[in-house]
């Protein structure tokens, strides 16, 4: 009897509780990841909007002159980039190769073509990628195709470290897992207590009934 009731409880309420909690945790982790990564991506897209907006002001006697003016302006933006402590600002050519970088180097070791390829396939000309650099650092790269002819510059790229972001994410994840463990532990212990509260009286009744069946009419159940 005890085994039967326990089995029903395990297959019933406890299983439903576990499935519900796991699904809720999975959804929470998905939304958490999308929120953190989405915020980082959006901050870089906003900077692109400011940069490309400035390119509209450049013109020339011919389309070629305007194109070269924009190219020079983008190179100055790279040289004078004020957020080098947060981002690596890179100019790319039509093949995805580095033309210039705010660090003054070729950005070797942090370059991936995944964001550039995604930008080429995207309807809005923006692509992003998360990956690990050659030094083992997790980064996010966001690339936007230049909407105006700008010489040999075909795309803009911003790269930022995800170390701090993922550290904060893991803190939230750890806390959420502790909450999940607490909920499941409470469910298990409260369920076992409930099962025992049913099984113990039923066991006593079963034992008393067996004694009566054997002719012991003096058996009494406690009130």
Strand order of the largest sheet: 2-1-5-4-3
Helical stretch count? Answer: 4
The string of secondary-structure elements, in order, is HHEEHEEEH
Query: How would you classify the quaternary structure?
Result: single chain
N- and C-termini, Cα separation: 22 Å
- Contiguous uncertain segments of 5+ residues: none
Into which percent range does the helicity of residues fall? 55-70%
**How much of the residues is beta strand, in percent?**
15-25%
Return Rg in Å: 32 Å
The overall pLDDT, averaged over residues, is 81
Major sheet: 5 strands, antiparallel
- Overall outline: rod-shaped
Derived structural class: alpha+beta
Number of strands: 5
List the helices and strands and how they pair.
Layout: H1 2-55, H2 63-79, E1 88-92, E2 98-101, H3 114-121, E3 126-132, E4 138-150, E5 153-161, H4 163-213
């Amino acid at each position: 009897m005890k085994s039967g009731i326990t089995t029903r409880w395990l297959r019933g309420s406890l299983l439903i509780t576990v499935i519900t909690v796991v699904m809720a945790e999975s959804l929470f982790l998905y939304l958490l990841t999308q929120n953190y990564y989405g915020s980082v991506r959006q901050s870089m897209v906003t900077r692109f909007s400011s940069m490309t907006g400035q390119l509209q002001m450049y013109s020339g006697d011919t389309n070629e002159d305007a194109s070269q003016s924009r190219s020079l302006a983008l190179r100055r933006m790279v040289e004078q980039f004020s957020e080098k402590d947060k981002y690596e600002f890179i100019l790319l050519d039509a093949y995805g190769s580095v033309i210039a970088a705010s660090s003054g180097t070729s950005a070797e070791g942090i370059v991936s073509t995944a964001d550039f390829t995604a930008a080429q396939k995207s309807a809005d000309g923006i692509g992003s990628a998360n990956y690990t650099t050659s030094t083992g650092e997790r980064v996010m790269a966001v690339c936007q195709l230049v909407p105006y002819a700008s010489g040999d510059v075909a795309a803009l790229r911003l790269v930022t470290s995800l170390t701090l972001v993922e550290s904060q994410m893991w803190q939230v994840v750890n806390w959420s897992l502790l909450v999940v463990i607490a909920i499941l532990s409470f469910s298990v212990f409260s369920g076992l207590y409930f099962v025992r509260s049913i099984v113990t009286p039923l066991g006593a009744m079963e034992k008393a009934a067996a004694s009566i069946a054997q002719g012991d009419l003096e058996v009494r159940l406690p009130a």
